[in-house]
Write a structure and sequence with these properties.
The protein has 192 residues and is an alpha+beta fold. It is built from three helices and nine strands, in the order ααβββββββββα. The protein starts with a helix and ends with a helix.
Length: 192
């Protein structure tokens, strides 16, 4: 029995682990939540500031009366990624909701391009305002495989804008590039 006595004494001398200090842990969690909320607020203020800097951009046009009755050249469903200043793929335009990503339904007709965005502002680009279409891989921080993005350049007021779209079926992109570029060359020919 004497051999158990030293084990008992050894066990009695050891202390259990310290109990978690809940007040310190709660303070750290609350501090982290406040920090995240502050960073989110700063990002929101930056978005608003960018919108106020771009407030000189005119209101977006809407589809003219009888537009839906015309012959559709092409339609596309997919994603609208963003609009940027033409040639500057990171200069996102946020005024009038152009910076909001959303689903999109595009319709190209002789009169122009109708952009319907559920949950965001729809807009219409008259054929005379269309400049070109191309395949690209990046716009406003969204990077895709080469040719994965349909970028349509158009004039709005005195500013050239690149708008990026991605079809649900990427094989449709080359047909859109051809159709938009053909429409712009036809429109330029009749304007002369």
């Amino acid at each position: 029995m004497t051999t158990l006595n030293p084990l008992y004494q050894l066990a009695a001398e050891q202390k259990s682990a310290d109990v978690t200090d809940w007040s310190a842990r709660i303070s750290w969690v609350l501090g982290l939540v406040v920090f995240i909320a502050f960073v989110y607020w700063l990002m929101r203020q930056g978005w608003k500031w960018r919108g106020s800097l771009q407030s000189d951009l005119p209101e977006l046009a809407t589809a003219p009366e009888g537009f839906a009755d015309g012959e559709k050249l092409l339609t596309l469903t997919g994603r609208y990624h963003a609009s940027t200043t033409a040639g500057q793929w990171l200069d996102r335009i946020v005024a009038h909701g152009l910076g909001t990503r959303s689903r999109v339904e595009l319709t190209l007709m002789e009169q122009g391009l109708d952009v319907v965005r559920p949950g965001a502002a729809d807009f219409f680009v008259p054929a005379a305002a269309l400049r070109e279409a191309r395949l690209d891989k990046a716009l406003a921080g969204k990077v895709l495989p080469e040719g994965g993005l349909l970028v349509i350049t158009w004039a709005h007021g005195d500013k050239l804008i690149d708008s990026g779209f991605r079809s649900d079926h990427a094989a449709e992109h080359p047909a859109w590039v051809d159709a938009v570029n053909h429409l712009t060359s036809t429109t330029e020919g009749t304007a002369r």
